[in-house]
From TrEMBL:
It comes from the Bacteria. The keyword Transmembrane applies. It comes from Andreesenia angusta. Residues 4-100 form the Polysaccharide chain length determinant N-terminal domain. The chain crosses the membrane at residues 20-40, 178-199. Keywords: Cell membrane, Membrane, Transmembrane, Transmembrane helix. Pfam families: Wzz (PF02706). GO terms for molecular function: protein tyrosine kinase activity. This is Capsular polysaccharide type 8 biosynthesis protein cap8A. The lineage of its organism: Bacteria, Bacillati, Bacillota, Tissierellia, Tissierellales. Belongs to the CpsC/CapA family.
Length: 233
């Protein structure tokens, strides 16, 4: 077989081996659907936001400078980074597990929790993933409550304000069965084409005059008909 293959030859091979492509595509699609539907638990995410400050300052109408303090904003942004790490600490997450009687370890809850400052702001966003929307909201709100309490207890300051209580996504955030099935089917098409080409490459039998001409480079002068088939006809 030649090292290169023209488009027409490729289409001819795929036409002959289409059952291979079809079988592998259907198989991988069904496998992807079964995996996503029966083995992957849907996960929902709840987000809550907090604002931190270096102090409980007040805004005075008589003092315009009290409205914006660039230096204080920069300090607050650094505090937000620190507080984002405190949210994920054992001192916050372990009480949440105990108070909600969660069937998970600290490490498992940590894997489901993301706490990070919103870029160029004094805001911290806390995100929690759980198997249900209600669980995600409950855990996120409890983490927020415990975090605020621990900041007051440890640092002796009350400089955290809750902006938004937790709200959960309407749809699961992990891959849906439809999306995973489509990806699996697409992968099956690619795999099926590769398998079809390999099978055809390893098939050394000559099935037509064109095959003979390609293999030995000599034109076919004539061919002997299959008299058995002619009698049947």
């Amino acid at each position: 077989m030649r090292q290169t293959m023209e488009i027409s030859e490729l289409l001819e091979v795929l036409g002959k081996r289409k059952w291979i492509v079809a079988f592998i595509t259907v198989f991988t699609a069904l496998a992807g659907f079964a995996y996503s539907y029966f083995l992957v638990n849907p996960m929902y995410r709840a987000d809550t936001t907090l604002m931190v400050s270096s102090s409980k300052g007040t805004v005075s109408a008589d003092d315009p400078a009290s409205y914006i303090d660039i230096g204080r904003i920069s300090v607050n942004q650094m505090i937000a980074v620190t507080y984002g790490e405190i949210v994920k600490s054992r001192v916050v997450l372990e009480p949440v597990i105990e108070e909600l009687d969660l069937d998970m370890s600290y490490e498992e809850l940590l894997d489901r929790t993301v706490s990070e400052p919103v870029e160029a702001t004094e805001i911290i966003r806390i995100s929690v993933e759980a198997e249900s929307r209600n669980d995600a909201v409950t855990i996120a709100n409890k983490i927020t409550e415990v975090f605020v309490e621990e900041v007051v207890r440890i640092l002796k300051v009350n400089n955290v304000e809750i902006i938004d209580r937790a709200a959960a996504t309407e749809e699961p955030v992990n891959m849906s069965p439809v999306a995973l099935t489509a990806i699996a089917a697409a992968a099956g098409v690619v795999i099926g084409i590769l398998v079809a080409l390999i099978v055809d490459y390893r098939d050394n039998t000559l099935k037509s005059a064109e095959d003979i001409e390609r293999q030995i480079g000599i034109p076919v002068i004539g061919s002997i008909p299959d008299f058995g088939k002619m009698k049947e006809d």
